[in-house]
Amino acid sequence: MADVHQALPLETDEHVVAVRKAVREHAIDMKLSLVDQTKLVTAASELARNTIKYGGGGMVLLERLRDGLRSGLRLVFADTGPGIPDIELALRDGYTSGNGLGLGLGGTKRLVDDFTIDSRPGDGTAVAIIKWKI
Ligand SMILES: Nc1ncnc2c1ncn2[C@@H]1O[C@H](COP(=O)(O)OP(=O)(O)O)[C@@H](O)[C@H]1O
Ligand SMILES: [Mg+2]
């Protein structure tokens, strides 16, 4: 069972703040530990900034999940920007096409339970993450 709770815009720094706040609230409501709350907020923050900086803006969908005994939060960051031509390269620690540290995608992948990138040059990018509370 999944039910979409929220769709939030991602165009400005204020939007990033709002997404961090919403994710923190869901994480608390799911009873994630403080460490896991922070991991999830950090992951969301990195992806939100990528959506704005590289995707030219977009949105994030926040979806609460329930699977038997566990509950989770799924976040999908979507834009209609240029896409990622080489996903493997983009995931590599230290790779940036801008002036970042190149740790956002790889770092995010390590902070969550599930991580998928769907991107085609010219079509945009969707990055989906899931964090479960066991
Ligand atoms: N939404 C996106 N659209 C297009 N390219 C992206 C997107 N997100 C990430 N990328 C590409 O992946 C690279 C690596 O991203 P990341 O690991 O977050 O590092 P950084 O943000 O420091 O560049 C970016 O430099 C960019 O080339
Ligand atoms: Mg980044």
Automatic annotation (TrEMBL):
CDD domains documented for this protein: HATPase_RsbT-like
Transmembrane regions: none
A Pfam family reported for this protein in Swiss-Prot or TrEMBL: HATPase_c
Record's protein name: Anti-sigma regulatory factor
Gene3D superfamilies: Histidine kinase-like ATPase, C-terminal domain
InterPro entries assigned: HATPase_C_sf, HATPase_dom
Source species of the chain: Duganella callida
Annotated ranges, domain Histidine kinase/HSP90-like ATPase: 35-134
